[in-house]
Amino acid sequence: MKKGWIYAVIVCSVSLGIGLLGAGIGGAHKVKHTPEQLKAFEDVFMEQVKIGDLLFHGDAATEKKLGTKLSRTGMACAMCHPFAVDTHPYEFPKFQEQINKFSTLRDMINWCIEKPNEGEILGADSDAMKALEAYIYWSNRGSKLDPGRH
């Protein structure tokens, strides 16, 4: 009787393991997206990239529309970070010297807005923050994720 029970546990464990491997760990999307869905996702993303681009380059009308003021000094993000190529979003989260703590990209965006630009920090879930992140990530597309690196 004991041998049968042990055998059943081993068989079930092996079957479960094979099932997990076959499904792929983290395979949350079992059904592939349709080309139409992918196009809709890309359209929404690129709209956010465009808004983020305007914010990043200091477009006052876009700031006003989103109810924010990213700078009171007349500086735009792009003045220090041309085209967002040196923002290194693929390195976050990491220890950030300016903030003196372990930080996310959102933390660094807000530090830049608040400190050198004397602007209004953005809510982590605000439309402006999402658009800035979309633009920064889009600008660095193809970069290898390397969190924690400097």
Write the layout of secondary structure elements.
Blueprint: H1 2-23, H2 35-56, H3 60-66, H4 77-80, E1 94-96, E2 101-103, H5 105-114, H6 127-139
Commentary on this structure:
It is a single chain. The chain is mainly alpha-helical. It has one domain (33-139): Cytochrome c-like domain (Cytochrome Bc1 Complex, Chain D, domain 2). The chain is built from 6 helices and 2 strands. It is globular. The N and C termini lie far apart (59 Å). The model is unreliable at 5-16 (pLDDT under 50).
In short:
With 150 residues, the protein is mainly alpha-helical.
Number of helices: 6
**How much strand?**
under 5%
The CATH topology = Cytochrome Bc1 Complex, Chain D, domain 2
CATH superfamily: Cytochrome c-like domain
Q: How big is the Rg?
A: 22 Å
Strand order of the largest sheet: 1-2
Helicity, in percent?
40-55%
Class, according to the CATH hierarchy? Mainly Alpha
Overall outline? globular
CATH architecture: Orthogonal Bundle
Main sheet: strands, sense, barrel: 2 strands, antiparallel
Q: Strand pairing plus helix content: what structural class?
A: mainly alpha
Question: SSE order, as H and E?
Answer: HHHHEEHH
Low-confidence stretches: 5-16
- N/C terminus separation: 59 Å
Mean pLDDT: 87
Per DSSP E runs of 2 or more residues, the count of β-strands stands at 2
> How many domains make up the coordinates?
1
